[in-house]
Design goal:
This protein is an all-alpha fold. It has one domain. Helices cover 63% and strands 0% of the residues. 4% of the residues are buried.
Length: 123
């Protein structure tokens, strides 16, 4: 197997120097972009300035009212914040597990439990 074939298997769908695709969410970039769009329509994105999409006050807005679309955009900002916070919590949980305890005891314990389960099933 050539180096090119190995690299192709290790990195399918990417070329040299192409960074890997990431799912990291940067909520602040989303907020800045949404704020630019809101400013173009003379609206400030802040809590309470726009109705939450789907609520009666949002449904009551005329379709031509920019605030109706901007409420949807603000919902996207909320979604980005939620995803960012979720990713941060998962990362912190991984750090906590890693730094927590000496996990070397776990593998033999799990192995022994499986052995006991297998003996019970056999009998």
């Amino acid at each position: 197997m050539t180096v090119e074939e190995i690299n192709g298997e290790a990195h399918p769908n990417t070329g040299a120097g192409v960074p890997p695709v990431t799912g990291q969410v940067d909520w602040f970039s989303v907020f800045r972009y949404a704020s630019q769009i809101a400013a173009q329509h003379g609206v400030v994105l802040e809590h309470g300035a726009l109705p939450v999409a789907g609520t009666p006050s949002w449904c009551g807005l005329p379709d031509a009212d920019a605030r109706k679309l901007l409420a949807l955009i603000l919902g996207g900002v909320r979604e980005a914040i939620t995803n960012d916070a979720h990713q941060e919590a998962l990362q912190q949980a991984g750090v906590d597990v890693h730094n927590g305890d000496d996990w070397r005891w776990l593998a033999p314990t799990v192995r022994r439990r499986r052995e006991i389960d297998n003996l019970r099933e056999a009998s």
